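Severity: low
Component: inverse-folding endpoint
Summary: output formatting inconsistent between runs
Steps to reproduce: submit the following structure tokens with default settings.
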């Protein structure tokens, strides 16, 4: 399963520097001028997972394969993007293809790095970006509503339901609020997602601070954290420049550098895990002598659905899932110990997979 987070923000806020650190490459050109990222850069990032290493060591696995997420570095947005200003049309089209949005907000002063607005104000930057996305959604919905209303007036039930959802979104947008603020019933969630609204996507705020503020944050980042808390969203404080430096170090150097900064782990780990949580994702494992692997699923997936992530035939021919909790696998010293200790369970089609489950699927095609 591929999950894609779009990294967005105004020009020169640190998007490409953050992307470089995430992917540990220089694939995205980080330069001091707008639109240095002309084409969206996509990087596949391993999800940090301590448990996977523990399982691999117990099982003597030859390969360790972590779960992955995709991050997209998108060209900087400017005011007027919804009308095609700058690289607006391309920017908006690329965001539409993502599952979630990571807002990078500049929370540092630096006279050598030009700010397009002439001053550092992360919440003002956020307002510019969010406003452009809301304007794009408004225009899209108003155009589409005409067609749906015609169908609804002819008695089309699906059209009637869509008109209700469109009106819910328009109510929020007309009040200057993103569509994600609308209260959507679970039964309507699929149809709501089909509207593909830019402002209905889950968001994560990244307060990009200077190197000296990496451990504690600063006044700028404090405003971002407060805003996120009031909105019920997630936010992380990161120094993209430091993360870029950390990403180039080996494990020993990295640990020493983090210690000097007073940090327990790279900020990128928190960012990736926050993105994982934001998308409502969970991890289960398959473990054996050949490989130990982490698999990504949505929260609430049943055992057959989880099996289908490996291969469609596993889901179609699902018989049962031999399941061990991570804790039991470790405590019993592996699969055989768990089996001997009565800790392996045979779960059927209705079993909801839990985060950390170690699973072996039985199927027949």
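Observed output (run 2 of 3):
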């Amino acid at each position: 399963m591929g999950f894609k987070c779009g990294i967005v923000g105004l020009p020169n806020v640190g998007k490409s520097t953050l992307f470089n650190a995430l992917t540990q490459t220089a694939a995205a050109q980080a330069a001091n001028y707008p639109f240095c990222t002309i084409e969206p850069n996509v990087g596949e990032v391993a999800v940090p997972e301590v448990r996977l290493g523990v399982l691999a060591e117990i099982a003597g696995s030859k390969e360790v394969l972590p779960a992955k997420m995709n991050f997209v570095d998108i060209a900087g947005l400017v005011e007027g993007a919804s009308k095609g200003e700058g690289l607006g049309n391309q920017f908006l089209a690329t965001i539409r293809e993502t599952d979630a949005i990571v807002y990078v907000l500049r929370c540092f002063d630096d006279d050598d790095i030009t700010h397009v607005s002439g001053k550092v104000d992360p919440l003002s930057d956020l307002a510019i970006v969010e406003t452009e996305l809301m304007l794009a959604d408004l225009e899209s919905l108003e155009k589409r509503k005409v067609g749906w209303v015609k169908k609804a007036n002819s008695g089309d039930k699906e059209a009637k339901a869509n008109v209700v959802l469109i009106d819910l979104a328009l109510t929020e947008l007309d009040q200057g609020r993103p569509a994600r603020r609308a209260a959507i019933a679970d039964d309507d969630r699929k149809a709501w997602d089909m509207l593909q609204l830019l402002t209905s996507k889950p968001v994560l705020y990244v307060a990009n601070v200077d190197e000296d503020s990496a451990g504690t944050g600063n006044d700028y980042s404090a405003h971002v954290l407060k805003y996120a808390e009031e909105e019920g969203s997630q936010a992380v404080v990161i120094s993209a420049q430091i993360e870029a430096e950390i990403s180039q170090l080996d494990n020993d150097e990295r640990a020493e550098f983090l210690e000097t900064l007073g940090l327990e782990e790279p900020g990128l780990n928190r960012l990736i895990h926050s993105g994982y949580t934001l998308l409502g994702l969970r991890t289960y494992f398959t473990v054996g002598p050949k490989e130990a692997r982490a698999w990504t699923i949505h929260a609430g997936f049943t055992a057959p659905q989880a099996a289908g992530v490996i291969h469609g035939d596993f889901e179609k021919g699902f018989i049962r899932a031999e399941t061990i909790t991570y804790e039991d696998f470790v405590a019993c010293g592996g699969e055989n110990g768990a089996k001997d200790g009565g800790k392996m369970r045979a779960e059927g089609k209705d079993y909801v997979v839990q985060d950390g489950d170690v699973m072996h699927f039985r199927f027949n095609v």
